[in-house]
Amino acid sequence: MSGLRIGITIGLHDAAETLWNNGIKQNAVFLVEALRHCSGVEHVVIVNTTVVPVTSSLPWDLKRWPTTTFEAAKDSVDVLIELGGQIDQAQTAYLKQRGVRVVSYCCGFEYVHAMEGVLFNKPLWGGNLFVNQGYDDIWIIPQVANISRSYFEVLRRQTGRVVPFVWSPELLKARSQKLQNGGEYRPNRGPGGTKRLSVIEPNINVTKFCLYPALIAELAYRERRDDIALLQVTNADRIARDSIDFIALMNQLDIVRAHKAVFLGRHETPQFLAEHTDILISHQLENPLNYLYLEACWQGYPLVHNASLCSDLGYYYHDNDVHDGARRVLEVMATHDAQAAWYRERQRALISRYLPDNAQLVATYSALLEDLMRRPIRLAPA
Prior knowledge:
This is DUF2827 domain-containing protein. The protein has helices at residues 23-36, 70-73, 89-97, 110-119, 142-156, 170-176, 211-223, 237-242, 244-250, 254-257, 269-276, 291-298, 322-335, 340-351, 359-374; strands spanning 4-10, 41-48, 67-69, 79-82, 101-106, 137-140, 160-162, 195-199, 228-233, 261-263, 279-281, 303-305, 315-316. The relative contact order is 0.13. The protein folds into two domains: 4-168 and 355-374, Rossmann fold (3-Layer(aba) Sandwich), CATH 3.40.50; 170-354, Glycogen Phosphorylase B (Rossmann fold). Helix content is 38%, strand content 15%. By secondary structure, it is α/β, with parallel strands linked by helices. Helix 7 links the parallel strand 8 and strand 9. The protein has a seven-stranded parallel sheet. Strands 10-9-8-11-12-13 form a six-stranded parallel sheet, with helices on both faces.
């Protein structure tokens, strides 16, 4: 296997779209970086599958991460990895007649999205669902495999493989370079040495919701009222305004009654960490590894979380045990600042397993590509 040309899809919605509006496009960029290290790969490009034009308005380095249209790429790739933009039946057929291998790279919680769409009347496909039957392989990142793997395999009639998660600090560094201390954590930045607790869950589905982190903060506040300055919950202004049930729940909490909790809109993670955060509290259901954890830990922020796939990072609490989570918050308050620099460097050493140039990660992707090209091409049913 040599001279392999690879395309990785995204779906642009705007000609000047940022890489920070969702994790999918970041995932594409990080996968580009990893595959470039693989033996036999000649070049890797990002392929936009929507009608949005690809221009110099895109706010990323087009020399480092070249981006093109499907039409421009369809005759010059040997492998197309469908990651963030779907190709249709005709496009699949065209690639197949050229002998192109097509891989579905699954990095979203599609089973959860389908379940919520059906149960809560949130239409996803408008009655025009196309399930591609022509994939030569399905690659699934570890954090979505447990809940969505069978969903992918049955509908797409193909066996899936769990592949390494890839992350890079390069985008984080670029976004943080103008922030104080490069956005890295520094001890005792709250008023009077008190701590500002932050919750940055997206609150758009059940996998990452702010309720349990708020309960963890509440338990810590009951123990150390004078040492906690504020609880800040981002991506929560809508539910704090419109959901009478959320309002009723929050009004049971001492930290809310004491006017030490605020419910904010959306903020960019690097800036919010750098300017407003001393301790980050997180909780997930079936999402045991995501960018937020890696961004926070890389920058040295104490992360209290229950993500089992990275339990060695930050301050881990088990499953849904908010009492254990509160104990970890109190531990952070008592011990973290005395070891903050050591903690940051240890986090970075641990995170190295996800970096695009990690030797084992690169070897695994090289082997996946080698096996992919060795197998006969899979033709989609007519």
